[in-house]
Amino acid sequence: MIARLSTVVLDTPDPHTLARFYAELLGLQITKVESDWIDVGDESGRVVSFQLAPNHIPPQWPDPNYPQQLHLDIWVDDIDAAEAKALRMGAQLLATTEAGFRVYSDPAGHPFCLEHD
After folding, report:
1. 113 near 72, Cβ under 8 Å?
2. Which of 83, 101, 77, 86 is closest to 9 using CA atoms?
3. Distance between CA atoms of 48 and 37, rounded to whole angstroms?
4. In what order do the strands lie in the sheet with 47-52?
5. Which tens digit of pLDDT belongs to each residue from 5-38?
6. pTM of the predicted model, to two decimals?
């Protein structure tokens, strides 16, 4: 294992409504509220986040014209080592806009983030 899952992030045009839905569905508490981002979680460290996406087109599974949409934030102990392994495994670096946070695409093009304090 080179990493552990940190956060599952869902894009939505209404983070507040979706956060309340999942908080109730999963028995979690709303733990962080920003203008465009809300976290729900518990003391075990489970977190689901909801990110404002005003132009979000919802999936209509299984219609491939409206595919499922989400990305993973993955916590790593050593971001440089994790990046090297992810790149060897077929990931592509997309952005490194802030320290300790890098955005990649997986081999199928889905975005994910590696993060480290």
Report:
1. yes
2. 101
3. 11
4. 29-34, 37-41, 47-52, 4-12, 71-75, 111-115, 101-105, 92-98
5. 889 999 999 999 999 999 998 999 999 999 999 9
6. 0.75
